[in-house]
Design a protein that fits this description.
498 residues, alpha+beta, BirA Bifunctional Protein, domain 2, Rossmann fold, Translation Initiation Factor IF3, 3 domains, eleven-stranded mixed β-sheet, 14 helices, 27 strands, 34% helix
Length: 498
């Protein structure tokens, strides 16, 4: 069944495309991630985990349940997450008079199902850190979290999602700030190099920063409906959480000091960003460096007497390619022997976004000419190669595709970023041109802002637009706020967002 096009119904297009990756679970707001989608997460994990360890971080695990009193220690933090918290108040079930199960035993203290782990991590850091010699303490965990969302969408906003969260403690403010920016850079490079997603690195405004943080940095990507997607965050927490959790150490002079802490994270939302950055009207388009598989070989068998020869050849070729390393992992090659029509089989892999396909029949064996089909090219277009040429050139073909996908995303982003100085033009930019597609508008507006929160509220109320970030590489520039006309020294990114 053909998808609606992105222009016809972008939201429905997205829901249909991610059907191969995940589906809604019986629990409201949660998702079941299918193997093709979970393979993407495993690849994201593998790459980022390697980089985290190369930068000195170690993995640990912290409890899913957090005592309510822990959140109460940091006022701004609990206020920011209060509406999203799931709370456990009882343990044990009993069968009631009507035969239904009922909670039986109240807990002495309610437990919060982890929305984030700063408070429980802080409790442990306070035990582990005694001296400046214990610093820096660089920890990461791969886990799930729960945030009780009212409106959910697969990968983009779900009640439960998977993520990694880094937590570090440092001797000095300078070291903690360096760590915050270092991890922002890790996310930015990962988005560019692996996800083929151009992103803008920047600082969140006071109203948009992480609850309890001093400064929140982020990377923001532009999706094909021109909305922004926050793809990763890195927080300089100052000493706020150290005070709340009493994370102290004896410094080099023997004086008791508070540690400086950071936290940073990225989630399965990256998969949603991957879909919306690169997908086309036929389905997924997966960048090779992160793809669930690199190549699908489809045996083409018209006569039973040629079956074994063709199947054997396909598996032999697959085995040869699987020994080739590609950006830190072996090539993943699938031989699709399903008993179904060849056209339907090929189309299923186009929809799933596999980078490359080859259909192999007796004629291909006889001529030693294999037709390599690339996902980002027209579907029936083939690049003819001998087997030896294919094996020798395959990773180069993948890298060339990775670059094409990235370059296309960069061109799209650049085409939909506009410098705007007049309020009337600003409002027109964020007004949809097509009533049937109310969410597709201009894109990112690069505008002056005076720094006053009330101007943010006006734009949010009128247009559902927020300041996504203050770009870290933005130069100082005098101007007038696009909303109020007040003096401004910088431009910021305004956009609608997920």
């Amino acid at each position: 069944m053909k998808y609606p096009t992105r222009e016809e119904n972008y939201a429905e297009w997205y829901q249909r495309v991610v059907e191969d990756l995940a589906e809604h679970s019986p629990v409201r707001g949660c998702m079941v991630i299918k193997p093709w989608g979970y393979a993407l997460w495993e690849n994201i994990q593998a790459i980022l985990d390697r980089v985290f360890k190369e930068t000195g971080h170690q993995n640990a695990y912290f409890p899913l349940f957090i005592p309510l009193s822990f959140l109460e220690k940091e006022a701004a933090h609990v206020e920011g997450f209060a509406k999203e918290c799931a709370v456990v108040t009882h343990h044990r079930l009993e069968i009631g008079p009507d035969g239904k199960l009922i909670p039986a035993a109240p807990l002495e203290e309610p437990l919060i199902v982890r929305p984030t782990s700063e408070t429980i991590v802080g409790e442990m850091f306070a035990k582990w850190i005694n001296s400046y010699r214990d610093l820096p303490l660089l920890i990461n965990q791969w886990a799930n979290v729960v945030r009780w969302e009212m409106r959910t969408r697969l990968f983009l906003r779900t009640t439960e999602f998977l993520w990694q969260e880094g937590h570090t403690a440092h001797e000095t403010e300078e070291e903690a700030k360096e760590e915050t920016l270092r991890m922002l850079g890790v996310y930015e490079r990962f988005a560019h190099d692996c996800l083929a997603m151009p992103v803008i690195a920047g600082i969140k405004t006071e109203s948009e920063k992480f609850p309890g943080a001093v400064t929140t940095y982020c990377i923001e990507g532009m999706m094909q409906d021109r909305k922004a997607l926050q793809c990763g965050t890195s927080h300089f927490l100052g000493q706020n959480f150290a005070k709340a959790s009493n994370i102290q150490f004896n410094d080099r002079n023997g004086e008791l000091k508070l540690a400086w802490t950071t936290s940073w994270g990225a989630t399965t939302r990256l998969i949603g960003g991957l879909v919306m950055s690169h997908g086309d009207d036929d389905g997924l388009v997966l960048p090779p460096r992160i793809a669930s598989a690199h190549l699908v070989i489809i045996p083409v068998i018209h006569k039973e007497e040629t079956r074994q020869e063709v199947i054997s050849y396909c598996h032999s070729l697959a085995g040869e390619l699987r020994h080739i390393p590609y950006h830190g992992r072996p090539l993943t090659v699938i031989v699709d022997e399903r008993d179904m029509r060849g056209g339907d089989k090929s189309w299923s892999w186009i929809r799933k976004g596999v980078p490359c396909r080859i259909e192999i029949g007796p004629r291909d064996l006889a001529t030693d000419q294999l037709g390599l089909m690339l996902r980002d090219y027209p579907h029936k277009e083939k690049k003819l190669l001998t087997r030896n040429e294919l094996v020798a050139q395959f990773t180069e073909e993948l890298d060339a595709m990775q670059k094409r996908i990235y370059d296309r995303a960069v061109a799209f982003q650049n085409a939909h970023i506009r410098r705007i100085d007049e309020r009337e033009e600003f409002y027109a930019f964020f007004t949809p041109k097509n009533r049937e597609q109310p969410e597709i508008h201009g894109g990112f507006a690069l505008c002056h802002w005076s720094g006053e929160a009330e101007e943010e509220e006006i734009v949010k109320r009128d247009l559902n637009v927020t300041i996504r970030c203050i770009p870290v590489d933005a130069s100082q520039e005098e101007g007038r706020c696009v909303i109020s006309g007040k003096k401004s020294l910088r431009r910021v990114i305004f956009a609608k967002a997920y």
